[in-house]
């Protein structure tokens, strides 16, 4: 029995529209204390292949084969995106995360392609790290990372680890870039079914993703006003949602941001 297509409309959307690069910003929010300080790195994730290729079949009862697709063309494309992002944002280092010690062909191709592309960016330091070690390093000394570039599955995992470092899925913004289409959404992509209808959701990640969209459209002044209001409310500490240690509802938190926007003019 062969599966074609996806249970996830989000995966299908990214593949159909070729929204190939996910960008998740992992950065401490001023005034919101977490275990790690001075965390500031970006995760660049290839969005359209890897284990998310959606090619699975059951050859015999009880035996499933799931195909992982890695291509030089898409690895090169995401590598160029990562290095260009590093240059544009004054980042100094790109770390390629992989499992080439075991998946020598697939992840070996990804790692070698990223390394080859790095030769065209001599001002950017580059290194590579096995995903197991990268996960450990991320929670023990995240300050060593600047830009990480990863295949799809590893990017999903490290995005969530990174979110945990700075306060959780509710505070991490993200975007997805393609040749013709850009999609802005919270970096961890959690749907939050466990808090559905409870008025507990933290809108910070959504609002900051919206600010990223405004900057993408050249509306920097509007973006800065919104993000400043969000940061001001968080730094003030009086109104916080449950995931941030407070008791405020989604509506109360949002209202506080709106009131701050009005006060700031």
Summarize the structure.
The chain is of the alpha/beta class and 265 residues long. It has 8 helices and 10 strands.
What is the CA-atom radius of gyration, in angstroms? 19 Å
- The number of helical segments is 8
Unreliable residue runs? 1-6
Strand portion: 15-25%
The topology string of helices and strands comes to: EHEEEEHEHEHEHEEHHH
How widely separated are the two ends?
60 Å
Helix content: 40-55%
Shape: globular
Query: What's the total number of strands?
Result: 10
What is the oligomer described by this structure?
A: single chain
> Can you list the strand order of the major beta sheet?
7-6-8-3-2-9-10
Alpha-beta content class: alpha/beta
- Major β-sheet profile: 7 strands, mixed
Mean of pLDDT: 92
What descriptive keywords fit this protein?
265 residues; alpha/beta; seven-stranded mixed sheet; three-stranded antiparallel sheet; 8 helices; 10 strands; 41% helix
Describe the structure.
- This protein has helices at residues 9-16, 72-88, 106-118, 131-140, 152-166, 204-216, 220-236, 250-264; strands at residues 2-3, 21-27, 40-46, 50-60, 63-69, 93-98, 125-130, 147-150, 173-177, 182-186.
- Helix content is 41%, strand content 23%.
- The chain is built from eight helices and ten strands.
- The longest helix is centred in the N-terminal third of the chain and has 17 residues, at 72-88.
- With 265 residues, the protein is of the alpha/beta class.
- The protein starts with a strand and ends with a helix.
């Amino acid at each position: 029995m062969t599966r074609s297509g996806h249970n996830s409309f989000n995966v299908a959307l990214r593949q159909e529209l070729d929204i190939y690069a996910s960008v998740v910003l992992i950065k401490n929010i001023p005034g919101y204390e977490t275990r790690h300080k001075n965390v500031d790195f970006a995760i660049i994730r290839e969005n359209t292949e890897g284990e998310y290729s959606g090619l699975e079949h059951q050859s015999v009862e009880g035996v499933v084969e799931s195909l992982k697709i890695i291509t030089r063309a898409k690895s090169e494309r995401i590598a160029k995106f990562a290095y260009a992002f590093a240059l544009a944002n004054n980042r100094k280092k790109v770390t390629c995360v992989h499992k080439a010690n075991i998946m020598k062909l697939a992840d070996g191709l990804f790692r070698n392609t990223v390394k080859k592309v790095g030769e065209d960016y001599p001002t950017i330091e580059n290194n590579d790290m096995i995903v197991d070690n990268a996960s450990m390093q991320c929670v023990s000394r995240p300050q060593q990372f600047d830009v990480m570039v990863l295949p799809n599955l590893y990017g999903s995992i490290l995005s969530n680890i990174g979110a945990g470092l700075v306060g959780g899925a509710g505070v991490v913004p993200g975007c997805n870039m393609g040749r013709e289409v850009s999609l802005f959404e919270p970096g961890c992509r959690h749907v939050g079914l466990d808090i559905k209808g409870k008025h507990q959701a933290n809108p910070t990640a959504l609002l900051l993703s919206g600010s990223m969209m405004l900057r993408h459209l050249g509306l920097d002044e509007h973006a800065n006003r919104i993000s400043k209001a969000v940061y001001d409310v968080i730094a003030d500490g009086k109104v916080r949602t449950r995931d941030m240690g407070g008791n405020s509802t989604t509506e109360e938190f949002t209202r506080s941001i709106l009131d701050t926007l009005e006060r700031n003019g």
